[in-house]
Prior knowledge:
By secondary structure, the protein is an alpha/beta fold.
Amino acid sequence: MSLEMLDAGLRKDVAALVSSGRAKDPERVIVDVVPPADGRGPRYRLAGSSLDFIRMNSNSYLSLSHHPAVLEAADAATHRFGAGPGAVRFIDGTFQPHIDLEARIAAFCGRPAAKIFNSAYTTNLGVALAIQNKQTFWIGDELNHNCIIRAMRIARVPRSHKAIFPHNDMGALKAAIEGVPDGVERVVVIFDGVFSMRGDHAPIDAINEVLAPHRERFAEGLVTIVDDSHGIGAYGATGRGTEEICGAQADIVVGTFGKAFGVNGGFVAASEAVVESVRQKADTYIYTNPLSAADCAAATAAVEIADSAEGRARLQNVQDRIAQFRAGLDRLGMESIPGEHPVVPLMVRDTERTRRMVQGFSDNGVLVVGLNFPVVPEGDQTIRFQINAAHTERDIDEVLAVLARIR
């Protein structure tokens, strides 16, 4: 009986989301993957549809989730260590593949140490819990991902101890750091590397320049954190992400194995002291089972591939397909936000037109994501395309041909 009353209230809540345009569409179910053939990349089959779809909405930028070496590593680890860890890390739930992956991703990111989590989302929550105290002041970009916003909340950062600056506005960042009140001992400046709705990136070099005069001002330091989940592996000449693009480093880097590396999990890479603090204090690390040995072995294999000649060749194909797609948008007179990242936004700037175009793509066998208000600001309604290494020249031509028909 009580659940019936709760159900009624929850149905009202969902109805309010629908009426405000914030409700999620029903989830499509992928039931099969058709391997690449005849100059075409893989196609995806959905429940209830007879079409084979091109995915232009996948974060798997290097297309490694079906790589034989990744699958073989996961299979071997499963047979050796089992399908699950059986405990949290500090209660003998740590296996050798966990340690191997932490060492490999730390080296890839050029940091002394790393700690892995179930996702980048829980990583950001854990890092915030580990480094927050009552004398910490936080500064963030207004377009930071939800997990960064949630991290500040879960760490109980009061309004008096945080500042938000307009997107990539270095003048506003300068004002924010200059306005940090007396008595603050520790300052954290946190931002996305690549902003996933737009495909642009944080200017880490400029951020460091703004912050440089204040580095010695606070007793326990002024540190930068970049969440480069969309950049690591997919951005820069060797896939080192936004830091490589900018020629500058943040103090702490958060990332994921679930995007460019095509597997699962998140990580933080930093100093040994930061990583040990995370191990001791991050609830989202301590009190939940870790990634399986299979996840870790697969991720390690994926990082190895990304850090090889094959990985660079895959990255080059991504860059070539981005250039091809952007040239096609230009020919069609379509508006985008400039950039070199696999996220390519098509600025539609109208909610109903965005919905019609997303449906038009689906009707023609192309999966894309439409971003409408309030997910994006009114007037910034967007269709987000994501290029990956499995896309071929023919695939991009097909998508552009569909766009030409439905625009």
